[in-house]
Write a structure and sequence with these properties.
This protein has helices spanning about 5-15, 45-55, 70-80, 90-100, 135-150, 190-200, and strands spanning about 20-25, 30-35, 60-65, 85, 105, 120-125, 150-160, 170-175, 180, 185-190, 205-210, 220-225. It is an alpha/beta fold and about 230 residues long. The strands form two sheets. A seven-stranded mixed β-sheet has the order 5-4-3-6-7-12-11, with helices on both faces. Strands 1, 2, 8, 9 and 10 form a five-stranded antiparallel β-sheet that branches. A hairpin with a 6-residue loop joins β11 and β12 (about 220-225). It starts with a helix and ends with a strand.
């Protein structure tokens, strides 16, 4: 079990406690993160997803980097007939979600999703764009998502540019909890102009941009497959 998964499962078992894990950046800085922030949707996320799901009574939804399944849980409560698919690297969190969501399907890596599956909604929330890593891998991921979307399908992607040094920046960090330290991760951060420009170049039609209440100037972009 990795450090992030251990922290999240501990938080689920002790919901009244403020359990935190530690992010250590490759440049030597670091800070604590509260697991509570990964359990509940923020108000703007609930409003956005409610609108996206309103006219889709039986959507097929892919959540890339689903964690404990907070977005999938909201989707299912809004549309009980939704078909859910999740991607989660951590084995224990993936197992937790498999038990939590009956009939849903989960894979460890985005590359494992079969090419013949099609989706009405793909989620890259919770700073989810960064999951692909470097800029080229992110562009490849956005192109593949476009191919997996049904016509009229929506990609909802959250990112930000908290370091404000370039349109796209890769940050490297480890996550630690108790005596566990995960392997170094590379996480991508993009400006709004970078994301809008590259979504359009990939064939998406920009729908809306929603400011995120998360610290650091994050935002959510929704784009359609025309």
């Amino acid at each position: 079990m990795n450090a992030f998964a251990t922290a999240m499962l501990d938080q689920l078992q002790h919901p009244t406690r403020d359990i935190q894990f530690r992010m250590e950046m490759a440049n030597g800085s670091g800070f604590n993160c509260s697991c509570q922030d990964f359990l509940q949707l923020r108000p703007e996320e609930e409003t956005l997803l409610t609108g996206l799901l309103r006219d889709r009574p039986t959507p097929t939804v892919l959540d890339v980097g689903c964690g404990v399944g907070r977005h999938l849980d909201f989707v299912r409560r809004q549309q009980p007939a939704a078909q859910l698919v999740g991607i989660e690297k951590a084995d224990d969190l993936r197992h937790y979600c498999s038990e939590r969501f009956e009939s849903a399907r989960f894979w460890q890596c985005f590359a494992d999703v079969p090419d013949d599956l099609c989706f009405d909604l793909v989620l890259l929330m919770g700073n989810g764009l960064g999951i692909f890593g470097d800029e080229q891998s992110t562009l490849t991921g956005l192109r593949r998502i476009h191919g997996l979307l049904n016509p009229g399908g929506v990609l909802a992607v959250e990112t930000g540019n908290p370091f404000a040094r370039s349109d796209f920046l890769v940050s490297r960090f480890t996550i630690g909890y108790r005596n566990q330290i995960d392997e170094m991760l590379s996480w991508g951060y993009a400006s709004c102009s970078w994301l809008e420009r590259n979504l359009a170049a990939t064939g998406y039609q920009l729908d809306r941009v929603v400011r995120s209440s998360a610290l650091g100037g994050f935002f959510i972009v929704c784009a359609l497959k025309a």
